[in-house]
Design goal:
Order of helices and strands: HEEEHEHEHEHHEHHEHEHEH
Number of strands: 10
Oligomer: single chain
CATH class: Alpha Beta
CATH superfamily: Alpha/Beta hydrolase fold, catalytic domain
Number of domains: 1
CATH architecture: 3-Layer(aba) Sandwich
Number of helices: 11
CATH topology: Rossmann fold
Strand content: 15-25%
Largest sheet: 8 strands, mixed
Structural class: alpha/beta
Strand order of the largest sheet: 1-2-4-3-5-6-9-10
Shape: globular
Distance between the termini: 61 Å
Length: 353
């Protein structure tokens, strides 16, 4: 019994980073950005950030568009859609990489997922794969209408859970001419089997709980959530995986944002647990770059999806030496290595004019 409880605990652990409370002090950055060297003001002639909102299936989506230095609306720029991690928001790692891409001459967009962050949608924190994939397509819909965007030079970068959803989006949406992932996280497989298969014994138990939660919602009752637990520093230190220990530090302390929470509706598990980001990988015929830390305990997910990508003639696996999963989000030397690879990759398939 103890082993089953522990396995269940590990299965949902990475969704339990709700030590970020709604009463947390708002980030000092005027744009709410919490990453290092973030833009603090829009200066003419430099990289600028443009907060925007748009409608997607009746829901208001909050996004940030990053434009390169000396941006000229009359010109045409290659553009990259950036999808954020599970529980993350556009002001964290997705914003960092979007800003770095803009510094390299690209227009970049990153948006909060529907039902999450500053975007609309009720109940809050619904986390269904179909919605996350639609979020990516919605970013493409909006940005391809934006002044200066070269619609024939559209790329996609997905980070962590956003990486898995980007793979699914690119399988069918051929507007994306080149696809990259960083520290890809296969949300469905982990929600079903647990990280490193640590929750296989509790699959049916959790499906029953999710079914009951949906029935309760349908009857007008309370919305049940996964991931509301709070943990002490001592408990965090005892977690079995780097991904979870470092995730608590990143999301709960060093890069905390009041809109970021790993809480999600329990009923979402009905959709999550049947999802696999690595299915139908042969449908990707675009150039593909998959990056992961050489020490990332989540690497097995990138490796599996990469090997299944048999439909593209141009694919590359890049391991960032010495990096763990979370460290690729913010450690300057690892971000620089990832960006150098992205610039070479997108520079080959999306031409900066």
């Amino acid at each position: 019994m103890k082993n089953n409880i522990r396995a269940y605990f590990i299965t949902i652990m990475f969704t339990s980073i709700s030590i970020i409370s709604s009463g947390q002090t708002k980030p000092a950055n005027p744009f709410g950005l919490v990453y290092r060297d973030a833009i603090t003001e829009n200066v003419p002639g430099k990289v600028n950030i443009h907060p925007v909102t748009y409608q997607l299936n009746g829901i208001t989506i909050a996004a940030n568009i990053y434009t390169p230095a000396n941006y000229d609306k009359s010109k045409h720029y290659p553009t990259v859609v950036v999808a954020h991690p599970n529980g993350g928001v556009k002001e964290q790692v997705a914003g960092l990489y979007a800003q770095r891409l803009a510094e390299s001459g690209y227009i970049a967009i990153t948006a909060d997922a529907a039902y999450q962050g500053a975007s609309g949608g009720l109940p809050r924190n619904v986390d269904k794969p179909a919605f996350r994939i639609e979020d990516i397509r919605g970013m493409a819909d909006f940005i391809t209408q934006y002044a200066g965007v070269d619609t024939k030079q559209l790329g996609l970068l997905g980070i962590c859970g956003g990486g898995g959803y980007s793979l699914k989006a690119a399988q069918t949406d051929k507007r994306f001419k080149a696809v990259a992932t960083l520290s890809m996280f296969n949300s469905g497989v982990v929600r079903r089997n647990g990280f490193m298969n640590s929750g296989v014994a509790t699959i049916q138990q959790r499906l029953k709980q999710a079914s009951e939660a949906r029935a309760l919602e349908a009857a007008g009752g309370e919305v049940r959530y996964v991931g509301d637990a709070k943990m002490t520093d001592e408990e965090i230190a005892k977690l079995p995986f780097d991904l979870y220990r470092e995730g608590f530090e990143y999301y709960g302390k060093t890069h905390a944002h009041p809109n970021s929470t790993f809480r999600y509706t329990m009923s979402s598990l009905l959709d999550l647990m049947e999802f696999d980001a690595a299915s139908n990988m042969d449908l990707i015929d675009q150039p593909l770059l998959m990056m992961a830390g050489s020490k990332a305990d989540s690497y097995y997910m990138t490796d599996s999806a990469f090997n299944l990508a048999t439909g593209t003639k141009e694919k590359e696996l890049f391991l960032i030496p010495g990096a763990t999963h979370i460290q690729t989000y913010y450690v300057p030397e690892y971000v620089a290595l990832a960006m150098n690879k992205l610039k070479a990759f997108f520079g080959k398939y999306l031409v900066v004019k």
